[in-house]
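Exercise 7 asks you to align residues with tokens for two separate proteins.
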Amino acid sequence: FPSHDITGFLYRFRSPLCRPLHRRNRSVQIAIKGEWVISSVNYPGSEVIKVTSFDLADSKCFIGSKWKFISMSNKGNMTLNSPSCTAYSTPITWFINKEGEFVLKILDEAKAKTVKSGYVLRVANQTEKSFQLVDQINVAGKMTAVVYQFDKIN
């Protein structure tokens, strides 16, 4: 995968969305289904360093965003709704890859098969009511974790 930079987390996919899931990864994926809200975005230096998440907006704009994950179809949607940021909503596709990582494509108006890039994040601290997606970005030559905290709505 290409290296990270502070402005985004772009990766190139190596495999199609239809890869079979390992048993452990299937349970991770099924547990993510449903509606979620990002309650926090944390990383060292967040008070002085600005991170653009998913090449869309400042990471702080993702706080309060709503995400819907449908595990059977690997589809869903996300909506940025922070009053201090530009509103944004888009369909997404997602899955858990064989390494147990969360793979996301932001579709806008495109079909999933025509979107050739996406994002790969680590799933951490997963429970029935919450989980984290963790990305590693390069800040001044040092790898830094950006942690998105998801809390279940229903």
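Second protein for Exercise 7:
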Amino acid sequence: IVTGVQTCALPICVVILHKNIVDMSNLGFKESVVCTLKGVTDFDSCSSRSEYWYYQLFRVICAGIVFFLTLFIGPLLPEWLGKGVFIIIILFALYIVLADIPLSVRRLHDTGKSGWWYLVACIPYIGWIALLYLVCQPSNPDSEYRENGDVIVE
């Protein structure tokens, strides 16, 4: 019997207090993206592999849309409107890229690694490969970064 349910930043990210289970298995594409974008300042908790990869898919889709808009639609706009749209696209892209940093840190926490391992991506040529290897690792149920012994279900 579950005695109480508490929600985190979103109602879809449910924490069941009685069993200390963070159920990430029900997060689909939309929920993962919303959780990531709303948790842009959260460097302390954990993120599942599915949340991480759904957000990466979202980034690729956004990049394709921005490419399409700038290549095909941009030249058709008047100059004054084109500059405004360009500024909005740049700000949105910046937010999308910056949201990836805390998500990667939370993913590293889920594997039991410190968030400082994100800096391995700064190593020229091979850093991104090392980071890719780290975020692909399975969840570590004994991670010291979990709150109250929570277990993330994938």
